[in-house]
From TrEMBL:
Top-level taxon of origin: Bacteria
UniProt protein name: histidine kinase
Record domain Histidine kinase: where: 105-337
Enzyme class label: transferase
PROSITE patterns reported in the protein's UniProt record: HIS_KIN (PS50109)
Coiled coil: 55-96
A Pfam short name: HATPase_c
Keywords carried by this UniProt record: Coiled coil, Kinase, Phosphoprotein, Transferase
Origin species: Azospirillum oleiclasticum
EC nos: 2.7.13.3
GO MF annotations in UniProt: kinase activity
């Protein structure tokens, strides 16, 4: 036996009809009032039916809207995950590009001392060949021998000096490259490491005739992730070279290190470039925000800097700038980086 929503109402109407039939013979004067009541009840009954139909329709629409909202939520979550993965890929690509620039920069730096050493070795080889010819011909004089000794002393000194310079460059490159690639924790002198990092940037700095001054205590020793600092400094310098100066304009960059207390390091990086407009200042750490889209700006450099500063470095970064007044980044971080897992350190 099945029941509908309005069984009770329909039964009430039927009972009212039977009552009205009985009253028609017993009390006809009441029939008109009963008819009015029945008609009013019928109107209410019809209105209830209409409202139920509207409610059913709205519930169907709500269910459909809920399903559509759920579908779109899943699509949004999928799109967000894909965007996050794509962003991580782009960030890794940006870091690899930075490492590639490091390799190219150091290779360019090494080319000069190696080239000088090769030229000196070639000159010494020629002088030695001429000396051998004179000895074999029996025509070697005291003056010739003295001239050869002078040449040998001068060229070997140049060869040694340039080979030592190349060796220092290779050592710096090797250490910085390993730090960038592995993100291993170790103890290091901050002043020397900043200089090693700047070696890779010399070709870019010389191209625009830019200068960098560094003020850092020589005895400041760190315990943390040097590759993170190298990446941050590289991105800050390249950001200045890309955005702060017009073509042909030279600039002055500075890196100043102080210690507010024994366990805290304050690094202030400053350029004297064109500055950042106020409406851009609050967006510079956002991913893909750049004013040089298609002109060498990826919009990831400062985003990486911010992530490294607040992530593996366990510090913070702030920026101050004004149009025509240059830009200053203040990086605060602990001298001994708190322990963290390798994945986070890799950034």
């Amino acid at each position: 036996m099945s029941f509908t929503l309005f069984d009770a109402e329909e039964q009430a109407i039927e009972q009212a009809r039977l009552l009205r039939d009985r009253l028609a013979s017993a009390a006809p004067e009441c029939c008109e009032d009963v008819d009015a009541l029945v008609e009013a009840f019928k109107r209410s009954y019809r209105e209830q039916q209409r409202l139920v139909r509207v409610s059913d329709r709205l519930q169907g629409q709500l269910a459909a809207a809920t399903q559509e909202a759920e579908r779109r939520r899943r699509e949004a979550e999928t799109a967000f995950q894909q965007l996050k993965e794509a962003q991580e890929v782009l960030v890794r690509a940006e870091k690899l590009a930075s490492l590639g620039a490091l390799v190219a920069g150091v290779a360019h730096e090494i080319n000069t001392p190696v080239g000088i050493a090769v030229s000196c070795a070639s000159h010494l080889s020629d002088a030695t060949g001429k000396l051998k010819t004179r000895v074999e011909g029996g025509g070697l004089g005291r003056t010739d021998f003295q001239r050869y000794l002078t040449t040998a002393i001068d060229t070997t000194a140049l060869i040694l000096a340039n080979c030592e310079r190349a060796a220092r460059l290779i050592h710096s490159f090797k250490q910085v490259a390993v730090d960038r690639a592995s993100s291993e924790r170790r103890r290091f002198g901050l002043s020397a490491y900043i200089q090693e990092t700047l070696v890779s940037l010399q070709p870019n700095l010389r191209m625009g005739n830019h200068s960098v001054t560094v003020e850092c205590p020589d005895d400041l020793e760190m315990d943390g992730f040097p590759g993170v600092l190298s990446q941050i400094l590289t991105n800050l310098v390249m950001n200045s070279l890309t955005h702060a100066y017009d073509d042909g304009q030279s600039g002055r960059l500075s890196i100043t290190i102080t210690q507010p207390d024994a366990d805290t390091v304050l690094l202030v990086y400053t350029d004297d470039g064109k500055g950042i407009p106020p409406d851009h200042l609050s967006h510079i750490f956002e991913p893909f925000f750049t004013t040089r889209r298609g002109e060498g700006g990826s919009g990831l450099g400062l985003h990486i800097v911010h992530n490294l500063a607040v992530g593996p470095l366990r510090g913070g970064i702030a920026v101050e700038s004004g149009v025509g007044q240059g830009t200053s980044f203040t990086l605060t971080f602990p001298r001994h980086t708190p322990e963290t897992d390798g994945a986070e350190a890799a950034g």
